[in-house]
Amino acid sequence: MDKAIQVFVDGVGIIAPGIDDWEQARALFAGKASLVDAKTKLPPPQALPAAERRRSGAAVKAAIAVGTQALAPCAYPAADLATVFSSSGGDSVNCHEICAALATSDRVISPTRFHNSVHNAPSGYWSIASGSMATSSVLCAHDGSFAAGLLEAMTQVVTEGQPVLLVAYDTDYPEPLRTVRPIPDTLGVALLLSPRPGAHSIGQLAIARDGAFTAQAADTLDDAGLESMRASFPAARGLTLLRALALGQERQVVIDYLEGMQLSVRAAPC
Description:
By secondary structure, the protein is an alpha+beta fold. It has helices spanning 22-29, 50-55, 58-71, 92-102, 111-116, 121-130, 145-160, 177-180, 224-232, 239-247; strands at 4-15, 82-87, 136-139, 164-170, 187-194, 203-208, 213-214, 251-258, 261-268. Strands 1, 2, 3, 4, 5, 6, 7, 8 and 9 form a nine-stranded mixed sheet that branches.
């Protein structure tokens, strides 16, 4: 593709309801397994010191889990890696608890709640876990957060000529916020993106500089369970892209971004 932002995918991480890792997701995309109706299993972030591990919530656990998965195949040193974290709402349980505390007469908020309330908390915990001093970008674009994060990460890879780890995640709100923001569980997706193909590259992604956006409807998934997941989690809007990578397909993938404007990404095997 001429005049395109092009990167290579060296690793993928995913954790979702009924999905524990990339290998399990690949089997689902290939039709070799069926999606199980189960809650998301969040492994404890063992790379964190004990004190930070106790303070971490679902957002931190999901982000560290999928980021670690994405780096595992090529053993890339996390301490040297620039990162992009993207989420539609951050730590939603913590947001609920702070709102509940502010609704009481004393309005006392615990220090742990306060420092976990910022949108870049998972990025900070990742830097502690990995020992990274590299740059980290943190963003939010509501339901278009995956596409926004992918755009940012791919642009950084091309402009800096260095690998970038993209981590996109969502967590579920308790009631009453859940009524207006009905994200059903916790889900995270990570992509390790590189400017050059390597021994562990599983595919390549390209976005045309002069045709990145389209009014065409976003792609959907044939499997009813996976499609429900894609539609329910902003971070899962990238599942159609993961499907193309898992199946080694060369195709144009249209991903939800902003209202009336989708992101068009060319996926291809290496």
